[in-house]
């Protein structure tokens, strides 16, 4: 229904993996230790590494938590190479290559039909929009292990109580997911932010969590990745405008398609504006940038208590008021697009059954 959201998750996960690679560069490791790569980071953030404290329950740790544990010598640095991490993946290179080949041929077919002015159906346009998101997702997840079945156990000589005691006041608050929430609590996520507002609880009830829920919302920041994601999202929405003057079974269906296309593009843009503003406010980005513009970067930084207060209000009231109707409009418009894709097949233009004459692209002398 909404591949652009899956694309946002994929982009966010890659950004987090790259941040992890930068974070691990400050560790003073022996030369024989394998380099921490983006594959290690993906594997860790999936919950591939499991901490086993002495006389305590085991639980998964992400890359940020693992870095903290290694830095304080609670666990040894993993000796897995990038190749060994990839060996755990069930990804089939041949299957991926075949999928890319099929989607590439589909794109060439669409270009060929457009070049020869052969009618294109709404089903083909919608499929093309999904293909766009799928290819970008493949790129973002190119180094992510797929369907890993077994975890890597990292044993610690300390009990969990000793680790928390030595962490001091930072670890005094009760945890919601794992005892290392004070390092990184997997926020923002459906489990930690959305479900408490809805006042219901689903998912793993065991604490500490036996596995990561993989529902963390992407925190991409304001860099090139965010710009690229915005452009691909708007391109996905914009592809529906290609069918603006297509032949529809009835004039009403054409009008509804146009309205739905405008609604999807407009809602996506409003969502981006709201999320960009709120993310910058939560992290103090706007104050910092304003202070830098004034030439006083020090006064633009918000203190830790203020940042925590803003994090607790992850979904402010104004955003709920704005995004509720936007989400409803987007859902109705997207549903209509999907339904109309199949309804329009009942009455296609005669030219839709023509095939591309590839010989016409060959110069004749």
Topology:
Blueprint: H1 3-24, H2 38-45, E1 49-52, E2 59-61, H3 63-71, H4 82-87, H5 93-115, H6 122-140, E3 152-155, H7 160-167, H8 190-198, H9 224-238, H10 251-283, H11 285-294, H12 304-312, H13 317-343
Parallel strand pairs: 1-3
Antiparallel strand pairs: 1-2
Helix pairs in contact: 1-2, 1-6, 1-9, 5-6, 6-9, 9-10, 10-13
What are the key terms here?
mainly alpha; 54% helix; single chain; three-stranded mixed β-sheet
Describe the model.
- By secondary structure, the chain is mainly alpha-helical.
- The model is unreliable at 305-310 (pLDDT under 50).
- The radius of gyration is 25 Å and the shape is globular.
- Strands 2-1-3 form a 3-stranded mixed beta sheet.
- It has 13 helices and 3 strands; from the N terminus they run ααββααααβααααααα.
Uncertain parts = 305-310
> How would you sum up the major sheet?
3 strands, mixed
Radius of gyration: 25 Å
Supply the helix-strand structural class.
Answer: mainly alpha
Helix content: 40-55%
Helical stretch tally: 13
């Amino acid at each position: 229904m909404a591949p652009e959201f899956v694309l946002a998750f994929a982009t966010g996960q890659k950004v987090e993996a790259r941040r992890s690679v930068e974070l691990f560069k400050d560790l003073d490791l022996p030369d024989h230790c394998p380099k921490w790569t983006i594959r290690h980071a993906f594997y860790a953030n999936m919950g591939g590494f499991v901490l086993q404290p002495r006389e305590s329950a085991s639980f998964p740790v992400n890359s940020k938590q693992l870095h903290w544990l290694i830095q304080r010598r609670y666990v040894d640095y993993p000796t897995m190479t990038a190749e060994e991490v990839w060996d755990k993946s069930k990804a089939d290179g041949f299957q991926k290559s075949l999928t890319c080949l099929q989607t590439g041929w589909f794109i060439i077919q669409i270009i060929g039909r457009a070049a020869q002015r052969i009618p294109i159906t709404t089903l083909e346009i919608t499929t093309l929009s999904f293909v766009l998101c799928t290819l970008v997702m493949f790129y973002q997840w190119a180094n992510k292990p797929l369907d890993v079945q077994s975890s890597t156990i990292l044993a610690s000589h300390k009990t969990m109580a000793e680790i928390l005691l030595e962490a001091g006041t930072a670890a005094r608050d009760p945890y919601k997911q794992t005892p290392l929430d004070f390092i990184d609590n997997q926020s923002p996520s459906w489990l930690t932010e959305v479900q408490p507002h809805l006042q219901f609880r689903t998912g793993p009830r065991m604490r500490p969590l036996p596995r990561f829920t993989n529902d963390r919302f992407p925190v991409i920041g304001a860099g090139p990745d965010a710009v690229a994601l915005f452009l691909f999202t708007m391109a996905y929405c914009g592809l529906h405008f290609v069918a603006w003057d297509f032949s529809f079974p009835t004039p009403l269906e054409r009008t509804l398609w146009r309205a739905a296309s405008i609604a999807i593009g407009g809602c996506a843009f409003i969502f981006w504006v709201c999320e960009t503003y709120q993310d910058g406010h939560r992290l103090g980005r706007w104050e910092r940038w304003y202070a830098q513009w004034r030439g006083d970067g020090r006064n633009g930084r918000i203190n830790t208590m203020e940042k925590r207060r803003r994090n607790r209000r992850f979904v402010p009231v104004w955003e709920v008021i704005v995004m509720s109707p936007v989400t409803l409009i987007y859902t109705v418009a997207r549903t209509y697009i999907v339904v109309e894709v199949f309804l329009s097949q009942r009455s296609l233009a005669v030219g839709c059954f023509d095939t591309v004459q590839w010989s016409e692209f060959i110069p004749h002398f």
